[in-house]
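User: Please run a holo structure prediction.
Assistant: Happy to. Please share the sequence and the ligand.
User: Here you go; the ligand is zinc ion.
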Amino acid sequence: MVGVSQWLLGEWSRIGRRDVGFRLGLKIGSRRGKTPKRKVLAFYDALEDRALMATVGYDYILSGFKWANPSRITYSFPPDGVMWEAGKNVLNTTFDTKFGNAWQGEIARALATWQSVANINIVPAPDGRYDWNSLGQSQGDSKFGDIRIGGYPFGGNKKTLAQAYFPPPQGATAGGDVQINTSMSFQINGQYDLFSVVLHETGHSLGLNHSENAATVMAATYGGVRSGLTDGDIAGIQAIYGARKLDVYQSQGLGLSANLPIDLTSGLVSTNTATAGGASLTKIGDVEWFSFVAPSYASGSWNVTAGAANVSMLSPEVSVYDASMNLLARAGDPSSWSSDATAAVSSIVPGQRYYVSVKGTTSDVFSVGAYNLTISLPKGSPSTPRPTPTPTPTPNPTPNPWPTTPPVIVSPTAPVVNSNAVNALPDRFESNDVIGAATRIGRSNQFSVTGLSLHSATDVDYFMFQNATAGTFQIVASGAAIQVLNPRGGLVAQGVGSVNASVPRNATVYVRVVSANSAPLSQYGLSIALQSQARQTPLPRTPLPRTPLPRTPLPRTPLPRTPLPRTPLPRTPLPPWFALPRFALHRYALRLVAPPTNPPRPAHQEIAAAPLPEAHWIPRAWNTRMRLVATG
Ligand SMILES: [Zn+2]
């Protein structure tokens, strides 16, 4: 029932009848002899705070692939006309004609549905005139999204609705990409429902394989209009990325109610703007509360922004209240996603307390996700000028393969009261206040130092290390705000207390530690540890035959010295793909691992006989392409 190829699929028609047979088989009992469980569909919004009943191997099956940076997974729509695997992309024209603007919203809802239950954040990204699987970074490439969604008519194939690739291990850019069969009759809330199909495909894009439970979204056969995920789907995505976590404030008990808000007063003492970075609405219905006391310099109109653009799929609504909880202003656009909402207030009273609440504009999946909260007071005369940030040097213009997230500015104002604010003394590395004077840790995957301090509110400590192994590093500086930078000063990751950063091999990593609460920190320790090693595509190890050679002594008769004929070897031109060393290597590896004539055939997978043209040979791990087939 599944048109899955471990290698390559060349022929759509091969799914045909055999698939239908498999599907029928599932209805009367699975081929493994298990009795299919009749499960009542349980959707995400009914699931909160209760255990998920799901069985791995039946309700969900993992592909083994996941995005290296789950906190920022981007998606994009390639323009029409680019080559989209086996046809020219026509998705935009096809769906614009049919649905107007509504189709992007259906796809956004599918992605937001996954984001609403897993510890991931997804954001739309621009795209350009780049063919499918163009060379680039597998995640974080600025040319296009990590998950690119295009479509073309799949020839005479009327069984496949769409197909998708699992997340990348490394290398090329096809991982996560989706192809929609534009010759199928897609509808919104009808046969075939666009949201339901894209929900299934993007489940593959995030790392889920086909489930065995026909009731789940990840079942290989189209199962009608879905309104959300089942227990099995949720358990699956959470097995990969974990459930959504409380943000750094909520995990300290702050922001969950107006009685215990996240207090930004201290951030507004010396500057007219305060940002609470890394805030997040963790589940549908969440409201997060902030508060501040207007500083003495404040006067005139001011505003508050809940910013989810470039952060997550959240559509935020922000409300401002006075000390008596009278609503002063509210903003939010329920038709938007991954958007900013700015509420403007016409006046401010110094010394008065104000409250700000953030929730979703709607009560659906778009009400979950990360955002930053910024309070911008009128430019009065702050008591002390804000220190200007140290510009980071640009050592050399060589292209850096490290994905740099756009600099989401976090002025860390976690409202932790620092009991150590007094008696903070400079630490022994005190001169490391600028990136050029970073304390050198050396080449290491594991490092720890204690007795550090941020002796003043504006003290900055820089450290530098080179990793020995590619992978995800956890950097911990308890009580401090951490930014991980690449050698060009680009922001790679940030957080308070602890941050995970994905680092390529032999990279130079800068760690910037600053106060999390605009107060000195008398004591902290820094530790850096490799958490998980980056997946390497192993080269095939064909064992050499170890038959001992017979040791008969060779006769020592001198050989006659006849000159060899000097016939020139024929110079067959190299095929075009050979010009691309990356492709050539992978193709070679592929053939050694498993020639297409004799691939392994797991029971539920089907291998196409005809390979695609050379241009479509892609690295081994990318060839796992999953599809959703249509019934009847
Ligand atoms: Zn599928």
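Residues 200, 204, 210, 220, 626-628 surround zinc ion (CB under 6 Å).
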